[in-house]
Write a structure and sequence with these properties.
Layout: H1 10-14, E1 42-46, E2 49-50, E3 56-60, E4 63-67, E5 75-83, E6 87-97, H2 123-141, E7 151-155, E8 166-173, E9 179-184, E10 191-193, H3 202-217, E11 232-239, E12 246-252, H4 260-270, E13 276-281, E14 293-299, E15 303-307, E16 310-314, H5 324-338, E17 345-349, H6 355-360, E18 366-371, H7 374-386, E19 392-396, H8 399-408, E20 415-418, H9 427-436, E21 440-445, H10 448-461, E22 462-470, E23 480-487
Parallel strand pairs: 4-6, 7-22, 12-13, 17-18, 17-20, 18-19, 20-21
Antiparallel strand pairs: 1-5, 2-3, 3-4, 5-6, 8-9, 8-11, 9-10, 11-12, 13-14, 15-16, 21-23, 22-23
The structure holds S-adenosyl-L-homocysteine (SAH).
Length: about 500
């Protein structure tokens, strides 16, 4: 989601999958396998463990085999889909022995598009998987004292479906003229139409499918990637869980949106739940979803979400966590871990629209935050004002530039919360944190690997009190965690 730019993980938004697939990449040097094996070959395999992307891992003649859709302790016949020097990828041909925790995915396309990696695994076991991923990452990087860390059970949802507040679907026209909206099949640009989606908030799908029907009825030109022709590329529907606001964004190949008037009339008539209609212009062939120009078509320019008793106005491209219910759980955990005392100064690094820092402003003497996305920072400052908060201030810039600057100007925060994208902390920021040496430090991570790696340096000066993972994305392999650190 860095996807819009502010999304935490650009790949998530910039590609049309729910997230990026980070399986090991093939590189040229690795093309000859250690053992003779060919694409298409089948063999039986016992799955020994789960990898970080939710795939099953087994061994064929000592080569690791990555098998999406297979679960630990299952026996499967697998078919090789690609061969590298040290590992193979394969797909399930047949499950010979399933484990009792295997369940039927609610989404028929779960094995074809990204973002549903664990939908065939019962939810309690999904939560165990996420805690294990944290442990596996620690074992790989071995930060100081890692064997003794208190890695707490993952906090999950009572109902792990229908949580996702935003649908960002690619739009294409099929050969028979029907309009489709969905996600790309993994590692391809083949669109998989998503008439239903179990993890989306129902209103996002209701609006999405109504829009698809309208585009088809009105024969609005749909973007054709091959010829770089047509207009509508992507539909974005974002709903606020706690206010019922709904925003629609048409992402288009040009400023011109044919039949706009009829489209807006029909939306007013059939989709009264939509409170904001915007258009974002992103011309030409590009792997980025969002363009630089955003136009206001009807209704409000922003939607408002309420979290932890505060109101947040969101412009079309502003980042907000995708799971509103679990966002409150995550922020509560962050607040608890930070354990701020009255009168302390705090930095909200990688602040997005200021959600974390503003929720701390009541107790803090001063909150400062920064983010690279100017619109997000503008929203953060506007949100401070909206909530009557006068002791919080957000700046545009990278955490690695802004924090050292503040430190040089003599601002030494008592507490720092970092919430970086999947790449983790920049070295310059790491050095500055260690130099500033805040009394309180909380690391919110959306990637256990970079977290474990960053902890290697942080634990030179800090002790890990505990790691609390929170399931922000049920049915996916994604894992979010809050780490409480204390000065040694
Ligand atoms: N804390 C926010 C946002 C987390 S997502 C929330 O909970 O909603 C991570 C944020 O980091 C994004 O808003 C992204 O724009 C921002 N970002 C990415 N690289 C950055 C950098 N080097 N410095 C500061 N912010 C950065």
């Amino acid at each position: 989601m860095r996807y819009d730019n502010h999304q935490r993980d650009h790949s998530r938004n910039d590609r049309a999958g729910f997230h990026n697939d980070r399986r090991p990449r093939r590189n040229r040097r690795e093309e000859t396998p250690q053992v003779a094996v060919e694409v298409g070959q089948r063999f039986p395999l016992t799955i020994k463990r789960m990898g970080i992307n939710g795939e099953g891992i087994g061994y064929y003649k000592r080569m690791a085999v990555f098998v999406p859709g297979a679960l630990t302790d299952e026996e499967a016949v697998v078919e090789v889909t690609s061969v590298a020097h040290r590992y193979l990828r394969a797909k399930v041909h047949r499950i010979r022995k399933a484990i009792p925790h295997r369940v039927e995915p609610r989404d028929s396309y779960a094995d074809r598009v990204g973002g549903f990696e664990l939908e065939h695994l019962a939810y309690p076991q999904q939560l165990q998987f996420k805690r294990d991923i944290v442990r596996q990452s620690l074992e790989r990087y071995e930060p100081r004292g890692y064997q003794d860390y208190d890695v707490r059970p993952t906090l999950g949802m009572a109902d792990p479906y229908g949580y996702r507040n935003k649908a960002q679907f690619q739009v294409r026209q099929a050969d028979d003229g029907t309009v489709q909206a969905g996600l790309y099949a993994e590692r391809s640009h083949d669109l998989v139409d998503l008439p239903t989606c179990s993890v989306q908030m129902p209103v996002t799908m209701t609006v999405m499918r109504a829009l698809v029907q309208m585009l088809q009825d009105l024969q609005v030109p749909i973007y054709d990637e091959e010829h770089n022709s047509g207009i509508v590329k992507t539909l974005v529907v974002r709903a606020a869980a706690n206010t019922d606001d709904v925003q629609v964004v048409f992402i288009t190949n040009s400023q011109k949106l044919p039949h706009k008037h009829q489209l807006l009339l029909r939306m007013a008539d059939e989709l009264p739940q939509v409170t904001s209609i915007m258009q974002n212009v992103n011309p030409g062939k590009t792997s980025l979803i969002w363009g630089d120009t955003t136009l206001h078509l009807a209704g409000e320019e922003t939607i408002t979400e309420k979290l932890g008793g505060l109101a947040f106005k969101l412009s079309a491209r502003a980042f907000l966590q995708l799971n509103p219910a679990q966002t409150e759980v995550l922020y509560n955990e962050a607040r608890k871990a930070l354990d701020l005392q009255e009168g302390m100064t705090v930095v909200d690094a990688y602040s997005g629209v200021g959600t974390i820092g503003l929720s701390l402003a009541g107790i803090a003497q001063e909150v400062r935050g920064m983010d690279v996305i100017p619109e997000a920072v503008a929203d953060a400052n506007a949100n401070a004002a909206l909530n009557g908060i006068t002791n919080a201030h957000y700046e545009v810039g990278t955490a690695e530039d802004v924090l050292p600057q503040w430190a040089m100007d003599g601002f030494r925060p008592d507490a720092i919360v970092v919430d970086p994208p999947r790449t983790g902390l920049d070295q310059n920021l790491m050095d500055t944190i260690l130099a500033v040496h805040p009394q309180k430090l909380v690391y919110i991570s959306c990637n256990p690997s970079t977290l474990a790696k960053d902890l290697v340096e942080l634990t030179e000066d800090y002790r890990v009190d505990y790691i609390q993972s929170v399931d922000m994305m049920p049915q996916t392999a994604r894992c979010e965690a809050v780490v409480k650190l204390s000065q040694r």
